[in-house]
């Protein structure tokens, strides 16, 4: 027998038994598993992780498992929910857990870890919006004791309990304590409780050696400051007990999650960058204007400034580029927002005169996109010619170039080729149509004839970076979150589709959800994402995009978050959006339809065109339409000719007829009519698999459906409802759980999701699980039985707002519809009187107060709605304050605020009105100290300890406005 060292005088090494314990409810077929960085926990291979076993303890389901580890063992680990084959169904959010076994713990001992499942919400305080802005400390919080146990057990009948709590918001000269039911925890007396030490990363810890006889114990955490005030965590007492049927562990590590405090709530202002007006701008808001906007925000009581996308959109070279959601590059900043005065300290006199003249010329009511772009680029080129060598050879530029060249070189080359070929359609660029690194390096090389042009684009991006960075740092230092916007799409003629064509499905286009198209018949024309291809490098393009955003922003809005679950995808030849399908989705199979008695697939999937339909649609013109666009394949039955059997072909042929003056009616009217005929189908045949079908959105509205027999109608209605509302839910959840966590883990920005519209049932549970903050607009309630949302019933994990950039302002909405206004006045305001026809400051005050008092984490208001608080600012017609008209695909995004930031800074009355609303709501207020000397960053309940004649400890709560509230017993 081999000598294993067991009988030769060598002592065997005793291991430490580490026991995991986690309360968690699972569904049938699900299990809990722990996986970590060391081999005994799978080395982050979940399939090799430790499966836990469930035990019912009272009303809780507790999962247990144990491993033997060496002494002084350390590792990282997390919990996962898996199926029977150990496939991951969900995982914990937040930071990886750390296990540290100190040398004080001898071999043979048992260490029991009492953990709590970490949700996405638990990770929110560690996002940069809170960590680096809201809870940013002007004082140093030094580590008092490294993480881990440092005490040793000597007596046999004692247990060492290691308390650990996460608390990211601790004011200066404030301590954390554990108080509880036994002597070590002060018997609920704060001064005699167990004081915790800071261990870094917002973790506080303490050890207590307790006799076994004192278990079970009840306890809570609390804050205690120098002035003698303390805030006790909310909720029920925490419990710690043994399983009486087992030998109790000698060491218990408590990971108690987050300190339970009153939820932090803040307020913000939303305004597009282009809409800002200042005394120094050239016809449009500029990045450096944000510093003044931050000042105004702070003095008005706001912790957040929200912008629309700020990436370069210079695709068409005209005002169409004002649309901020169709980016030329997801990395490059828009030259529109450059402050040319700041390009140099030594501007020539002729340049100064040009800037002065441009300022006067461009100072209009609205943004003149084309004139502003032309003026800024003209001035920037002159300054560049003067200072290019100085800037390009500077160490700061060299560093910037080094950090950004991966996207900066292709962007500059694209801009050069766009201007050279006079189109952004890279399919028209000859040998440059297909991107390659070799071609790129030749284009941007110092030896090329156009190197100066390439460098000009570097130069502009460098200065945009400097100016936005300056504004972003200013916002951080002043306690204001700068919130950006992540568009769901890119322009099909963009740098990104040129450089990464495999990441996009260019033969299709995507738009808004189908309910939007049903109302407006528009198609945005974005390429859809090839998620399968993106997954091959773990979504590197998305990760780089979020990393770039995080250089400037501490929070962001995910535009149309439903696109990460599923996207509404259209054929490349579509110009409107109803003949589409969800990607991904499970189609209807031919076998499935045949089992239900559906056989005539050509009848259902081809345009149903009969003579009566044409006569009804086109009147006297129907014969012209039939002769030029149709073939009569059967008596009274028609089909489209091959040269006009798609929307794009119809539009092209109509334009040809119009140019020859051959149309009897308007081109628009005939086009809409022909499009309706083309869409008169019930099923859409999959172009990649002819045996798969997708039900046309709103199929019951078509005459093709109406002319079917009752059996077919009933079957198709059932399958339609199943396709749109049931069968996809699990697929869409899985899709989102592949992509959204990658976004969230790519940066430490706070993430909010625009979740308006037709919301699948899987969306909100996924957002809650991932800690994504949703959006609530009062006039667009998610509840189908409500006309107006009820802000007081919103959940905490939301942003609430009375309006947004995609709808009319509060004033315009109020004036649009008299009957709706009366219903709002009766049902929301609670008055039977006739409401005023105009949105008076009193009405604006009421609506804003509803929102600041809501439980939502954030109440964010468009600047236009805030200006409605003062009559002086309501002289401009309300309709002119709308940023976007979603019914118009070529809307000109040009709204400018009609008052400068400098004037708003001087308006103490408006700032007082806004700050009073925020203060009165209990929302956090930036930069002001409360009576206890704490800055206004916390809504915690403060209290004074009281001891009654029986020795019981109680607390008088002090509400956020300083008014004594109902007494709360600590016991």
UniProtKB/TrEMBL annotation:
Biased composition (Polar residues): 936-962
EC number: 2.4.1.25
Entry's Gene Ontology cellular component terms: cytoplasm
SUPFAM superfamilies: (Trans)glycosidases (SSF51445), Starch-binding domain-like (SSF49452)
CDD domains: CBM20_DPE2_repeat1, CBM20_DPE2_repeat2
MF terms (GO), sorted A to Z: 4-alpha-glucanotransferase activity; starch binding
Subcellular location: Cytoplasm
Keyword Glycosyltransferase found: yes
Start and end residues of each CBM20 domain: 10-119, 153-266
Keyword Magnesium: no
Catalytic activity annotation: Transfers a segment of a (1->4)-alpha-D-glucan to a new position in an acceptor, which may be glucose or a (1->4)-alpha-D-glucan
Family: Belongs to the disproportionating enzyme family.
Protein name, as recorded: 4-alpha-glucanotransferase
Natural source organism: Manihot esculenta
